[in-house]
Amino acid sequence: IKRDRIELEEGEAVPDRLEALENKEKLRDIVYEYRKPTLTKRADIAFEEDQLRKAGIDLTIDDRVSFIFGQTSGEEDHRPPPSDDIRDVRESLPISRYRDEIIQTIKDPRIPVVIVSAATGSGKTTQIPQFVYEAGIASASKRVACTQPRRVAAMSVAMRVDKEAHATNPGLPKLVSGYTIRFEDHTSDDTAIQFLTDGMLIRQMLSDPRLSSFSVLMIDEAHERTLQTDILFAMVKQLLLARNDPASPWYDPFTVVISSATLERLKFRDFFRMKLGDTTFEPPILEVPGRRFPVSIYYSVDPVRGYVPAAVLTILQVHFTQGPGDILVFLTGQEEIEDAQRQLREQHDTAVRNGLECAEEEMAEIIIVPLYASLPRAQQMDVFAPTPRHARKIVLSTNIAETSLTIDNIVYVVDSGYVKMKDFDEDTGAEALQIVPISKASAEQRAGRAGRVAPGHCFRLYTADAFKRELPESTKPEIQRTKLDSPLLMLKSIGIDNPFGTDLDFLDCPAPEQVRLAAGGLLTLGALQVSAVDTAAVMRRTMVTEMGKLVAQLPMEPAMGVALYAGQQHGCLREMLSVVAMLSADWDPFFKPRTKQGQREAATAHEGFVSQEGDHLTLLSLFNAWSSVPDAQRDQWCHDNFVHARAMQRAADIRVQLMNMLGSAEPVSCALGDGTIPAEPVLRALCQGFFMNTASYVGGPYRLVRPPLDVRVHPSSKFARPPPGGKMPGFVLFHQVVKTRCVYIKTVSKIEKAWVEDLLQRYGKIALDMM
Ligand code: CDP
Ligand code: MG
C-alpha cells in the first residue's frame, strides 16, 4: 500500500491539512505523525495541600491529578452571542449562511449526491432537514429522512427540530418532525421530517425497497462508519442508479445528502463517483467553515490508575478552582457513568460540608446529568436544559457527545481516553463488548467540544506520551470488526443474493472470513439453506428459508429471532417473548445501592426472583412478578424491590411490539396448572438460537465452545460463585461476552450439553464445507 506521511504539529487540526491533499487519492492510507508535544507549564487546577486537607476528599487514587499544558488549537471568533430567541439561535449557526447554496444544490437534478462537511455543532443535523422542508422539497408524502447512528441522537434531535420548526412557524402540525428507532415510532401522517437510526432505514427497505416515501435522504454522522451506515451507503448507491435514471422503471429522482464532520469526505466523494447516463458524476463537497475558539489541551503528568476516580477528582478540581462554564466528561458506559455520578455527588457534598469554597462563588451548586444510549426521553431534556445562573452543569457522557449531540456552554472537557465498543477480540476471535483506547481523531473531536462558546480547556486523563504511542490514528470501520449474520440475512431477504461479494459496492469490504462465519451461522440456524453448489467457485450458493424470512423481519439479531421462533415450537412462546424482551431492553434491571446496608437489603429483595436454573429464568420470573402488579403500584413495587422501573417498562413495551410483529394475540405458554414455569422448554428454545454461546466448566473458569477460550462468569450472575453446598453447572448458555480486565460471560444459565450437540456438530460440518 502506498502511504503518505504528513507531519503535523502536535494538536494541529488534521482536517485543515487534508484540504491541501484534495487530489491525493488514497486518503485512508495517510498516516498522521504527531510531533512530540512541547510540554510547558503545569495547569493550575490541582488542589493545593491545604485545600485537600480541608476538603476531606477521600479517593483511593492519587490525592490530586496534575496536568501539564500540551497544546492549543482553534482560532478566535468574537461574534456576539445570539439572543435566547430560537430563531436567532438558528440564524447564528454557521450552516445558516449556506442555506441557499445547500438548497440550490439539492434542487439541482444533475446532482443526486452532495457531501456537506462541517465541524460538529455547526447545525448540520438540526438545520439541513428543516431547510429542505422549508424549501418545499419535502412534505408529509415525500419526507426528508435523516439517519443517525444512535437512537438517543435520533430522538433528541427530532424533538429539538420539532420545537424549532414550531417556533419558526406556529401553524405547523404536531410531529412535523418525528423519529423512528428500534421498537419506537414517533411519527404521524403529518410528519415531513423523519429522524431515524440508520438501521431502521435499512429495515424500511424490507417493505419499501425503493424508499419511495422519501425525496431527500440525509445520511448523517457518516464519518462514524457504523456497520449500518456503511450498508446504507452501499444500498443507496444502488438505489440512486435505479431511481435517478430516466430510463429506469423505478424513475423517481431523489437526493442523498452525506453529512459528516470533516473526516473522510474525500473517500465519500470517490465512493459516489459513478456513471449516470452518459456522464461521470462526482458529488460536490460543500465545506462549511466551523467556528471554534482555541482549546487548551492538558495531559495528565503521570498515568492515572483508575480513570473513573481520576475523572471525579479532575471535575472537582476544575469546579472548585476554575471560572464559569459547564463540564463535559467522556466515560464509557451507563454503569460507569452512574458510578461516577454517585462518587462525584458524595465527594462534592463532603468537600462543601468541610468548607471548601468555589473560586466563583455564584456557581456553588452542581447539576450532574448523565447521557448514554438508553437514557429515557424525559431525562434527555435535562441534558439540554439551560444551566441556571448559580450552578455549573456537569455532563457525564459516553461518546454520544463526541459528535452526535452538541451541548451548549461546555467550556471544560475531561477525556478518559476510552470508549466501549463491540469488537472481535484479536487474541480470541470472540466478539465482545470491550473498553478500548479512543483514536487520535476521536481525542481531537472530544477536545473540540470545549471550544464552541468561549476559549475552552480539555483535560486528558492520559499522558502526552500515551497519546502519542498508544492511541491509534483512527478506528477501523465497524463492518470489519463485527458479526455479519444480521446484515447478511437482511440483505439476502431484500433480494440481494451475494451482498458482500459481487452484488453491492462497499466503502470498505469485510474480510471473507467474516462473511463465511456469518453464512455458516445462518445455515446452522436454518435461516439460510444451500440452494446450489457452485463448483467453479467452490462456493455454496444459499437462499433464505421461510423461517429465515420471518426472522429477518424481527428487529434483532438472527439468533434471538430464531430463539423466539423456537419458543413457538417448544410451546413456550409466551415465556420466550418475555425473556427476549428483557434481553433486548439491554438494561440490568436489578438496582445496586452503593452502601453496604443498601446492598444487603437489595440482595434480600432480589433473592425472591432468582431461579436455580440461572439468569435467563431469573429475568423471566422478575418480568412475570412485575407484570402481575397493577399499573398504579408498579413504581412503588420497583422501589421496594430494588428494581429499575424504567428497564421493566421498556421490556414491557418491547414485548407488546414483538407480539404485534408476530401477530400472536394468545401466545402458547408452557406454564403448569399451578403457574410454575418449567425451565427446560424455555432454555431449549434459547439454545436453538444461541448454541454458539455455550461453555463448559473446566474447574475454575469456563471454556467457550468456540473459540476455546477460558472465561469467568460475570459477578452479576447467579453462577459467579458456586451455590452454597452445590457445585457449578457443567455446561452453560450465556448471552454476552464482556471484556474488561478479564473476559466475562454475562447472563448465564445451566443447560444440558445434549441440547446443543447436534447444532454444534452441524455447524462444525458446515464450517468445514465452506473452507
Ligand atoms: O449536526 P451538527 O453537529 O452540525 O450540529 P447540530 O446537532 O445541528 O447542533 C446545532 C445546535 O443545536 C447546537 O447549538 C446544539 O446545542 C443545538 N441542539 C439543541 O439545543 N438540542 C438538541 N437536542 C440538539 C441540538
Ligand atoms: Mg450532527
Kindly list the characteristics that best describe this protein.
20% strand, binds magnesium ion, disordered N terminus, 771 residues, RNA binding, alpha/beta, seven-stranded mixed β-sheet, single chain, binds cytidine-5'-diphosphate
Beta-strand segment tally: 28
Given as residue ranges, the uncertain stretches (5+ residues, pLDDT < 50) are 1-8, 10-36
Largest sheet: 8 strands, mixed
Structure annotation, total helices: 27
What characteristic shape results from the CA principal axes? globular
Q: What is the strand arrangement across the widest sheet?
A: 7-6-8-5-9-10-4-13
Helix content: 25-40%
- Measured between the Cα atoms of the first and last residue, the distance is 27 Å
Kindly report the average pLDDT value: 87
Report the portion of residues in β strands. Answer: 15-25%
What does this structure look like?
There is one protein chain. By secondary structure, the protein is an alpha/beta fold. It is globular. It is 39% helix and 20% strand. Helix 10 packs across helix 11. The longest helix has 20 residues, at 334-353. The strands form six sheets. Strands 7-6-8-5-9-10-4-13 form an eight-stranded mixed sheet, with helices on both faces. Strands 3-14-21-18-15-17-16 form a seven-stranded mixed sheet, with helices on both faces. Strands 24-25-26-28-27 form a five-stranded mixed barrel. Bound molecules: cytidine-5'-diphosphate and magnesium ion. Residues 124-125, 220 line the site of magnesium ion. Residues 93, 118, 120-127, 156-157, 160, 384, 406, 408 line the site of cytidine-5'-diphosphate.
